[in-house]
Amino acid sequence: SGQGSHGFHVADVDGDSCDELVYGSACIDNDGKPMWNTGKGHPDCEYVADVDPDRPGLEVFYGIERASKKGAVCLVDARTGQVIWENPEPTKHVHGQGLCADIDPDHPGMECYAKERDSDASWLYSSKGERLSDKPMGGTSPRAVWWDDTPQKSLIIGSRISKYKGNTLGQIEGNVVCIADCLGDWREEIITCVPGELRMYTTTIPATTRKPCLLEDRQYRLGVAVETMGYFYPPQLGLSGSEK
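The structure corresponding to this sequence follows.
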């Protein structure tokens, strides 16, 4: 008890071709039995993805809400729940959805970001657990989206779409309610809600690289479905869709 979250993630974490449920700091096998439990408590921030391309299988990135002496910001093995790396500092209230995406071309794999609710204490880690920054990055819940023609995602911070440490690529209006590859060109559309309407924003940058539609990846497709409930988390590719 006490390990749940504001939603769940669906992924084949053990490679048996069946889906498991990562629900907060615990994982439930496809037969309904517990697989593992980190015991760290309730996370606000939770992503299941191929964070570190050098490790086999998937990983789970967490930002644990409750006060902790250490380890509230951590990466664990999605198959076993074992901690791969974690922050050494005490935390009071890591809040919001954080971010987990490949935004920095200088480091392999995905970058992982989390932030305290009531202070500027922030953590941006590489997939290997190297702390890249301690500065806030657009509050507690910046979004990431495949927008241009590079392997790295772009950031959505407020109404601005931009590259990490880079130029502005576009502007949007409204609250982001869905991010998905709706048009099938492996880049993602941004669906927002404004009074009286839904809007879909798409990139105007041509793609020079051909890739399958992201929705062909099962974990990604289920992630799009999960966007409609609980906390908002952009969908993540499974191993079949990642470039391992």
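The chain has a mean pLDDT of 95.
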